[in-house]
């Protein structure tokens, strides 16, 4: 039987499943260093120590930074840290996925930095769709429509814009097409896309719902519904 040390020591992993839930939009990373230290990146960076005993691993208390993430990302981080606090049995699946499980908690790890999980460096995916609204109102001729893909993983910091398109004029449905360079995407980013419409420098329509983007695939036919600012 392969020991936990052989499976983990000196390797970096991406968390692909947590508590039976597959992760796609937000995936933390964990490194089990050969010197017995552990480090990782989620909403926060964390570090500590770990010990292996045959087929199991125990992680010591972890120190973390103190940033707050959006609810989905923060829930994933909280569940991850709670799981790592338990004694965990380590096994490997036929597909190479490392499984850590114990006391009704589990997580799955796939070796890699995160940058290479779903794409090659510099790979570009295309996101297409339409901006729409329900009211029978014409946009002014000088309307400016901006569609942006952001990393929304942090709640207490400005969300970086990873791709955007500005469209001048037109009426709904307004088609858009954005190219997203995956080389600019952090391994644990939480990507979402939204739209805003301005005229004469004033915001008049905006999306109020989060629309997630899966960076592992081309994303086609996204409908972004905007609401009127100050409207009914």
Give a verbal description of the structure.
The chain has 232 residues and is mostly beta strands. The protein has helices at residues 4-8, 71-84, and strands at 11-18, 21-22, 29-32, 37-41, 45-53, 56-59, 63-64, 88-92, 98-102, 105-111, 124-132, 144-151, 161-168, 174-181, 191-199, 202-207, 211-212, 219-228. Residues 115-121 have low confidence and may be disordered.
Question: What topology does this entry show?
Answer:
Blueprint: H1 4-8, E1 11-18, E2 21-22, E3 29-32, E4 37-41, E5 45-53, E6 56-59, E7 63-64, H2 71-84, E8 88-92, E9 98-102, E10 105-111, E11 124-132, E12 144-151, E13 161-168, E14 174-181, E15 191-199, E16 202-207, E17 211-212, E18 219-228
Parallel strand pairs: 11-18
Antiparallel strand pairs: 1-2, 1-3, 1-10, 3-4, 4-5, 5-6, 5-7, 6-8, 8-9, 9-10, 11-14, 12-13, 12-15, 15-16, 15-17, 16-18
The quaternary structure here is: single chain
Q: Numbering strands along the chain, what is their spatial order in the largest sheet?
A: 1-3-4-5-6-8-9-10
Q: Please report the number of helical segments.
A: 2
Largest sheet: 8 strands, antiparallel, barrel
Overall geometry comes to elongated
Rg result: 21 Å
Poorly predicted tracts of residues: 115-121
Tell me how many strands there are: 18
Order of helix and strand elements from N to C terminus: HEEEEEEEHEEEEEEEEEEE
What is the distance, rounded to the nearest whole angstrom, between the alpha carbons of the first and last residues? 65 Å
Instruction: Provide the residue-averaged pLDDT.
Output: 89
Give the structural class.
Answer: mainly beta
Name the helicity range.
under 10%
Strand content: over 45%
